[in-house]
Specification:
The chain has 292 residues and is an alpha+beta fold. It is 34% helix and 24% strand. It has ten helices and 13 strands. The chain has a five-stranded antiparallel sheet with strand order 8-7-6-1-10, with no helix packed on it. Strands 5-4-3-2-9 form a five-stranded antiparallel sheet, covered by helices on one side. The chain has a three-stranded mixed sheet with strand order 12-11-13. A hairpin with a 5-residue loop joins strand 3 and strand 4.
Amino acid sequence: LEVGSSRNFELVLSFKEENLPLILGVTKTSAIPGMKEKPGKDEDLPKMFVRANVSDCYVFVDDDRTTHSLNYDSSTPEVLARIPALERIEARLAVRYEEGHVSFVSGSKTWGPLKVPQLDYRPCIFLHERHTSVSFQISKKRPREQESLGMRLWKARRYTDAILSCGDRQVCVHREILSAASPVFERMWSGSYREAGDGAVEIPDVSVDVVEAMVQYMYTGEVPAQGDPAQLYGAAKKYELEDLAEEVGSRLLESIDFDNVQDRARVLRLHATAGDAQAKKLWERMYAKLRE
């Protein structure tokens, strides 16, 4: 697939059960001209690409959504090896390449960064089923020296002055950043609430991965792939982050399947019946999609 920058990019793949099995990865740009457009009868195009790169460049997603690395080294009898860091994934898988490192991300699970030769790469997808299609988005990853101030603040997390508590886990934050992004945090820390004094906010109803994703958005304006989208949508609504809710709402519909439909329908219906216009539109779209 074509990318704007062959040294810094991210591809987010959305798939359904009927798309499986599939392979997602990156290939050296220099390997592409040597590949045949139509392999011979006994030739396997994915195998040719895997052999032209290192095995860490690819993830095989099986019919049951378990993830495996691929190894076509003749000295190793096992071609597939389970990836403990990912295990069984949901309906989205992202591959990121940046400055000689590749990572695979699904929700809160990450395999990588894995070191590969620092060359020009392109993302690639191999589908086993012929008459099927998947959706994907490609974006450019910022080189480290060009990172935004918000991203640098988020990564460093120095001189923080508040804490978001999720059970026994904590997320350290800057009040000024969160107050500027969320009217709810602004009211908490500027009024007579208890949180205004000690800077501690309890968030017991969502996972720490979701809180991290929400806070990262407030710092950077980017929505990471981690965290359950249904929980993230609910958190965005709770803290009045409407732009985040709109983007995550679209993700809810893109990757809906049998395993997650109940949780996603529940959160949309909750906000739709409360009179939220955005949630009502998403609920209507979901209902129509489920009837197809």
